[in-house]
Amino acid sequence: MTSETAAAKTNDALLGLMREAGCSNNRLAVKVNELAARQGIVTRYTKASVTRWVQGMQPRDRAPEFVAGALAEFLGRPVSPADIGYVTAPQRPVIARAIAYRDDVGETLHTLAELGSTDVSRRSLLGAVPFVAAALLDPQRRWLLWLLENDQGPRLAAVADSGPVERVEAMIAMFDEMDNRFGGADVRTSIIQYLSTNVIPMLQRRGLPDHERSRLFTAGAKLAATAGWCSYDAAEYGLAERYMIQALRLCAEGGDRILGGQILAGMSHLATNLGHPGEGVSLARAGLATAKRSGSPLGVMRLNAMAARGHAAMGHGHETAVALSAAEAALESSKGAAQESRWVRFLDTHYLEAEAAACHRDLGEATAAERLAEASVKANADRRRRQAISRSVLATAQLQQNRLDEALDTAGQALDELGGVHSERSVQALRDFRSRLAPRQGEIIVREFERKALPLLGPAA
Asked: What letter would DSSP give residue 341?
């Protein structure tokens, strides 16, 4: 990034601001290198570089931004590249940049911070951000290349016992609890603001010890992934995809394979539920390649469950059964949540029951779906979102067996449970059930249910 392009004449604007700031060539070069390093970019500008800039040479890439930032610090007021006579190439909107997995982690941090800021302030039409299934291919490829290049032993998540990592992880635990109790839509903004204003600046600092740096990047990856899940829960599917892609890149920097596998599991879930089960299976397989030597049977269980969900959505009964069998075997091999990474301790037999019930529902295997969904409902009494989703699956299984009255009663309970929980995933599960009522919409009890469901589910398509 030290190559430069020629300009026509002496840069009087730059020279004037340097004089106003009382800034020498060497001092400016040092500050520019420092600002670049905060973004994870290595530059080696010297006082000779600044002399060339004053003589009319323009530095390439992001250097004009760093020169302006350095002068702004010296002067105590905003300075833009245009103020110092630099013409910068138009930058793609952040919603376009955030869908790419970048080698430069400094660029990833910059993109993620801008995405969060734009998301929270709604400075652009983020509600229209599209989900692009094809964009999930490159992150998989780059992650697997990273995995091959770092093919070492198992990488269990490190446990921090003090300092900034402990504080960040305490916040992560709090956000997870709020998400479970109230749904992702309510906690989403708080997570994004904390990530953008607290965690990303920590990651941009120079001189962090290696162990602290890897733990902070892992924590940042977890927060970005949680922002993705909460965006998913708020029906912001394009944003969910972008947060998860950026989370995967941060996770590579932290080197946590268990978390990497879980991020890929989330991406798989998103793809399958949005009608791209082939991509969902591919993402789950990438996660399994990540998790196979991670020392986390629970993580492997979840990824096999996600592969099963994709196969079931495509009507592949044999492949679904194989994946569910592998998930059960992984679950049985776990020595318990206390022996696993913190990132997978929420996974248990009831999680697998719920996912398996959805698989059997999609394959039309109503008896198995009913049995597993009932078990999930009983086990998750304190988790209203999971309760509502499992009740929706149970209602569909009952409907598939022509037990209309029971199905509508079960779905009505799911509606009641969603009071105070803002979860689009739960709503979508109920919409799926409602769509299956279409052949019987002439019946009075069906019309009554649709009237009750209208405020939450909206009009039927």
From this structure: -
Same domain as 95, residue 72: no
Strands (E), 325-372: none
pTM score, two decimals? 0.78
Cβ neighbours of 326 (radius 10 Å): 18
Separation in Å, CA 193 to CA 108, 119, 121, 238, 257: 17, 10, 10, 19, 26
Look at residue 427 and tell me if it is in a domain. Answer: no
Q: In the block, which residue shows the tokens 């052949």?
A: 439
Q: Quick check: is 372 in a domain?
A: no
pLDDT at position 332 over 90: yes
Let me know whether 105 and 236 are in one domain.
Answer: yes
pLDDT at position 14 over 70: yes
State the pLDDT confidence band at 402, using cuts at 50, 70 and 90: very high
**Cα distance between residue 271 and residue 273, in whole Å:** 6
How many alpha carbons lie under 13 Å from residue 241 in its C-beta half-sphere? Answer: 29
Count how many domains the chain has: 2
Provide the domain limits for residue 104: 91-129+158-255
**DSSP summary character for residue 103:** S
φ and ψ at residue 349, rounded to 5 degrees:
-60, -30
8, 164, 198, 206 from 202: Cα distances, Å: 40, 9, 7, 9
pLDDT of residue 162: 52
- Taking a C-beta distance cutoff of 8 angstroms, is the pair 175, 188 a contact? no
* DSSP-assigned letter for residue 156: P
- Is residue 100 located within the same domain as residue 196? yes
- Give pLDDT tens digits for 28-44: 999 988 877 765 577 88
